[in-house]
């Protein structure tokens, strides 16, 4: 019999490991739209539409390359709804001699793949996913050699390994490894010349999928009205070029800035494409470096962008697999409050939150600082159950797969791993949001006040968060300054702040 090669929804790369090792003439590629994957969390409608449409286009691409593709659609009446049951049906259709598959991107699906050999009595080869720079073995040995894991040192090794932005003498370009300090400019005024991502008009395939999703997932969060994602490699490359030409030059300067009604700013909007396999992250980094070498973009932009990909992206993946499947259950701060309902509607009078959540509903997208310092910061300060926060992020973003979402949410944003991913919690008061955005200008709250009817909720919550967690965080060197400031406040002021926070938190329940 032939080889059966299942290709999962985030493996949309023509030379993915399992295919690269196979003979087209003797293989059947199996692609499956299955209910379990669309419902293991209640994904945003646009996320489901993006993945299904990209899968359908990818099947066409593989066929054009000469592969035989067996494609099971979600609305096929015989569809059994899970990867394992669909592989069983495909075995009955094709009588394969063996299964080859590329490793899954999360523990949940990995367990399924590992069960197939015994269950089906067929040889199953699980190929390592080599679309990443750093293999599991490499990360594990890097981590084993260290008492404390820090992204910055991992990143330097990835720079050396790739040679990206390195001089011929083996030093970092410009003399520094990291230009983050130059990437914190407050937002400029709005103008009409701001870059916008390419808006791809849905073709017939995408329109079919949009109708299917509107019909089947009406109860999931999100709008389909603004669906303009790329769904093929060629389209994703157009967005890549748009980013390189128009946004990258100022990506560095304004990486942390936020502006009302401007969801995209100078970000790339490439994460859904990279994570699904439509774009090659290393090729993208080489294109960024080439722009720098050609004098078209400054070093802080090129370095800042490359760091996100070969540094953060690879690092969080390493942590995800290194820490094991129970990472998702951690709750270092012991928080239990349910996620407030406005995370699903955007209906809150906190303007920053309404903006970040509103654009998430519209576009299944928010940029890093919105995720970290608006919605993430709020959940951290309010003491929300980190598992609920994790599920929300996994649901709402088109780029969300557990291997990348979980360490970012549970670790970096919610400090629920106790400081493994970041050395201090990303907690901030309204002052930070006011510095990095124009949100506060059109908010009903006053960002300068800590107590009273009009006080910005982030302020009292920030101090209350520190006070509440003093036992766990009081000894953190990086929080010494805020704890000193808290201790210096007069006792009645502290009591008023804590009372303000308590009343606000009660109003959430
Ligand atoms: P840009 O700002 O243009 O950055 C360029 C690229 O760098 C991104 O496309 C992405 O591939 C990579 N990158 C940047 N930061 C990170 C990071 N912290 N971790 C991994 N890759 C990074 N990213 C996801 O891809 N999927 C997620 O599910 C996800 N969940 C997140 C949850 C939280 C709470 C936070 C704080 C961050 C999360 N991120 C996630 C990281 C980051 O916010 C997104 O990668 C980024 O906003 C995607 O938009 P962009 O392509 O315009 O990014
Ligand atoms: C996220 C997702 C969704 C919504 N639907 C499918 C699907 O129908 N078929 C499929 O193969 N993959 C889907 N995915 C992506 C998978 O969940 C993804 O491959 C795993 O998360 C990786 O382990
Ligand atoms: Fe957000 Fe507070 Fe600013 Fe309003 S005042 S936008 S709630 S930080």
Description:
With about 500 residues, the chain is mainly alpha-helical. The protein has three domains: about 5-125, HUPs (Rossmann fold), CATH 3.40.50; about 135-325, Serine Threonine Protein Phosphatase 5, Tetratricopeptide repeat (Alpha Horseshoe), CATH 1.25.40; about 340-509, Orthogonal Bundle (DNA Cyclobutane Dipyrimidine Photolyase, subunit A, domain 3). Helices cover about 50% and strands about 5% of the residues. The chain has a five-stranded parallel β-sheet with strand order 3-2-1-4-5, with helices on both faces. Bound molecules: flavin-adenine dinucleotide, ligand DLZ and iron/sulfur cluster (SF4). Flavin-adenine dinucleotide binds near residues 267, 268, 271, 368 and 393. Ligand DLZ binds near residues 43, 51, 109 and 401. It holds the Pfam family DPRP. One of its GO terms (molecular function) is lyase activity.
CATH class placement of the largest domain: Mainly Alpha
What compounds are bound to the protein?
Answer: flavin-adenine dinucleotide, ligand DLZ, iron/sulfur cluster
Percent of residues in beta strands = under 5%
Order of helices and strands: EHEHHEHEHEHHHHHHHHHHHHHHHH
Radius of gyration: 24 Å
- Regions with little confidence, pLDDT below 50 for 5+ residues: none
- Spatial shape: globular
Helix content: 40-55%
Oligomeric state, counting identical vs distinct chains? single chain
């Amino acid at each position: 019999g032939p080889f059966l090669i299942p290709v999962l929804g985030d493996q949309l790369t023509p030379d993915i490991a399992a295919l690269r090792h196979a003979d087209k003439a003797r293989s059947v590629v199996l692609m499956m739209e299955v209910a379990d994957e669309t419902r293991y969390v209640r994904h945003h409608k646009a996320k489901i539409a993006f993945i299904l449409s990209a899968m359908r286009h990818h099947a066409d691409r593989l066929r054009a390359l000469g592969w035989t593709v067996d494609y099971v659609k979600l609305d096929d009446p015989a569809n059994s709804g899970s990867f394992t049951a669909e592989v069983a049906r495909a075995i009955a259709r094709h009588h394969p001699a063996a299964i080859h598959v590329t490793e899954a991107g999360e523990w949940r699906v990995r367990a399924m793949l590992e069960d197939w050999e015994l269950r089906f009595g067929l040889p199953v080869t699980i190929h390592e996913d080599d679309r990443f720079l750093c293999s599991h073995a490499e990360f594990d040995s890097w981590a084993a050699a260290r008492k404390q894991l820090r992204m910055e040192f991992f990143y330097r090794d990835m720079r050396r390994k790739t040679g990206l932005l390195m001089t011929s003498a083996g030093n970092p370009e410009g003399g520094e490894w990291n230009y983050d300090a130059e990437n914190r400019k407050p937002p400029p005024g709005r103008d009409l010349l701001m870059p916008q991502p390419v808006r791809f008009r849905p073709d017939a395939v995408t329109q079919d999928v949009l109708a299917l999703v509107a019909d089947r997932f009406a109860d999931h969060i999100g709008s389909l009205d603004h669906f303009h994602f790329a769904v093929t490699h060629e389209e994703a490359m157009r967005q890549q070029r748009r980013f390189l030409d128009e946004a990258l030059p100022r990506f560095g300067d304004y990486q942390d800035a936020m502006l009302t009604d401007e969801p995209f700013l100078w970000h790339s909007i490439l994460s859904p494409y990279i994570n699904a396999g439509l774009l090659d992250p290393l090729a993208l980094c080489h294109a960024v470096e080439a722009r720098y070498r050609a004098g078209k973009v400054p070093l802080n932009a090129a370095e800042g962008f490359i760091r996100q990909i070969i540094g953060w992206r690879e690092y969080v993946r390493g942590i995800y697999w290194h820490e094991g499947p129970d990472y998702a259950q951690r709750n270092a701060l012991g928080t239990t409050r349910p996620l407030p309902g406005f995370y699903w509607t955007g209906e809150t009078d906190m303007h920053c939150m309404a903006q970040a959540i509103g654009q998430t509903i519209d576009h299944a997208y928010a940029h890093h600082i919105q995720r970290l310092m608006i919605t993430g910061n709020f959940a951290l300060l309010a003491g929300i159950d980190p598992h609920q926060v994790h599920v929300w992020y996994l649901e709402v973003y088109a780029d969300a797969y557990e291997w990348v979402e979980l360490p970012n949410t549970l670790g970096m944003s919610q400090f629920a791993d106790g400081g493994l991913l970041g050395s201090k919690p990303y907690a901030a008061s309204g002052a930070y949001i006011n510095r990095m955005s124009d949100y506060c200008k059109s908010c009903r709250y006053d960002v300068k006040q800590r107590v009273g009817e009009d006080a910005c909720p982030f302020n009292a919550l920030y101090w209350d968060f520190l006070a509440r967690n003093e036992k766990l965080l009081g000894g953190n060197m990086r929080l010494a300054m805020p704890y000193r400031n808290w201790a210096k406040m007069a006792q009645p002021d502290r009591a008023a702040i804590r009372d303000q926070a308590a009343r606000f938190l009660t109003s959430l329940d």
